[in-house]
Amino acid sequence: TGAIEESREKFVNPSHFEELAKKGVINILDICFGIGYNSACAIEKIKSINPKCKINIVALENDIEIIKKIQSLNPKIEYYDILK
User: Fold this and answer.
1) Cβ atoms within 10 A of the Cβ of 48, count?
2) Are 42 and 12 in contact (CB under 8 A)?
3) Amino acid 63: pLDDT
4) Under a CB-based contact definition with an 8 Å cutoff, are residues 53 and 47 in contact?
5) pTM above 0.70?
6) C-alpha angle 42/60/39, rounded to 5°?
7) Residues 19-36 as b or e (16 or more Cβ within 10 Å = b)
8) Residue 58: strand, helix, or coil
9) Which of 7, 13, 49, 56 satisfies CB 3.0 to 4.6 Å to 37 for a cystine?
10) What tens digit of pLDDT does each residue of 20-75 get?
11) What is the pLDDT of residue 1?
12) Dihedral angle, C-alpha 21, 19, 79, 13, nearest 10 °
């Protein structure tokens, strides 16, 4: 869970999604998307605050092999399957 905890502590918590989720729409730019833990943890947090919040994510990744790797992963992050 090291990478998952890092996503929550270094990306999600400092992003103040509590305030933003109440507005009903959040736009996220995820540069160097990697295996998607930051975006998945963000979705998880936002939906826990406001299940009706619309989330737009633009995710950029240059390495197609990393994107392919997502298909074989099953981390304990709610909504990770959306990224697959």
Assistant:
1) 12
2) yes
3) 95
4) yes
5) yes
6) 10
7) ebbeeeebebebeebbbb
8) strand
9) 7
10) 999 999 999 999 999 999 999 999 999 999 999 999 999 999 999 999 999 999 99
11) 62
12) 170
Residue 64, H or E segment: helix 64-69
What is the DSSP annotation of 25-54? EEEEEEET-TTSHHHHHHHHHHHHH-TT-E
Q: What is the model's pLDDT at position 83? A: 86
Place of tokens 């992003």: 15
- Give the Å distances, CA to CA, from 12 to 5, 9, 31, 61: 10, 6, 15, 19
Q: Indicate the helix (H) or strand (E) that contains 71.
A: none
